Amino acid sequence: MVTPGKATILALGKAFPHQLVMQEFLVDGYFKNTNCDDPELKEKLTRLCKTTTVKTRYVVMSDEILKKYPELAIEGLPTVKQRLDICNDAVTEMAIEASKTCIQKWGRPVSDITHLVYVSSSEARLPGGDLYLAKGLGLSPETRRVMLYFMGCSGGVAGLRVAKDIAENNPGSRVLLATSETTIIGFKPPSADRPYDLVGVALFGDGAGAMIVGSDPVLSIEKPLFELHTALQNFLPNTEKTIDGKLTEEGISFKLARELPQIIEDNVQGFCEKLMGIAGLTDKDYNKMFWAVHPGGPAILNRMEKRLELSPEKLNASRRALMDYGNASSNTIVYVLEYMIEESFKKKKATTQSHEDHEWGLILAFGPGVTFEGILARNLTV
């Protein structure tokens, strides 16, 4: 069942801030919080809130924070220090909670963790969040730590690629991968000069995710969920301005180019086929595989589905994660994989047929660069 020496995902965990935002109440709340009354921008955001397909999200931002830091809602003030004070604490808290859930599901003691990979685009400090997470979990001071900063939406799969390499090159190791993000780092009042900001307001959410990765699982204790066969990363030359982020005195400012879904559509097939070819799979196998895709937005999922002629249920887990949590940047792939396992168990209950055909699949994300991250994997829960 499990290939000796190949890395496997042994457990998943997630955590969220306490503030739940229902999409239908978002527009009024956001314009009230930022003391803005521009009917045109309000109408645009209302429209975007419908097209993103997001229903609920969790956010760190709250009335208490805005009362304490009213300057966050005012255009043009240098607030990066205040933002980092809030973000650094919030991401650590969420990462600790997600990791604890994950470790509990894994079933082995925290002292068995040998390596930590920490991913975030929502904090900046020395030492980094990896140290505060290790301290908060009581990890051994000898735990070998790696930190991936500012990789945006592809960070979760990039972290998984790094965790896979560590696990396979250090026999017996167990790697904790943790991701944690909050949009407070880029929270801004609406502005007619920055209409693209509204896409983020309608789409992005906060939270944390965690995975335990290791090879040669101890099957009496550990339950391997996915086997990570081969990982690829690829950047598309001359597309670095497509997802453009800058850390400024006012926090992070993001610009997403309109052509991003088109760029992904034009390049996704070649990238997937390169990965699939390793297992002898072709485009005829698309609908026999599982697809765990980071849901950057509905346009990206729709175009992928169309280009690869995927049957609608193939991107179910991605669409559900987007609907329930929004695009939570690097964390979202954890939520997608959790939904995928849930769907596998449902299928397993509903049928007694062999699921040999369904075990291969791809774990995919797209981020700044434009960078494609992909892992050819086997779903061991079917």
From TrEMBL:
CDD domains associated with the record: CHS_like
Domain spans labelled Chalcone/stilbene synthase N-terminal: 4-217
One Pfam family recorded for the sequence: Chal_sti_synt_N
Report the GO terms under cellular component: endoplasmic reticulum
Q: Look up the domain of life of the source.
A: Eukaryota
Active site, renumbered: C153
GO annotation, biological process = polyketide biosynthetic process
Q: Which residues form the Chalcone/stilbene synthase C-terminal domain?
A: 227-380
GO MF assignments? acyltransferase activity, transferring groups other than amino-acyl groups
Q: Which UniProt keywords apply?
A: Acyltransferase, Transferase
Q: Which family does it belong to?
A: Belongs to the thiolase-like superfamily. Chalcone/stilbene synthases family.
Record protein name field: Chalcone synthase
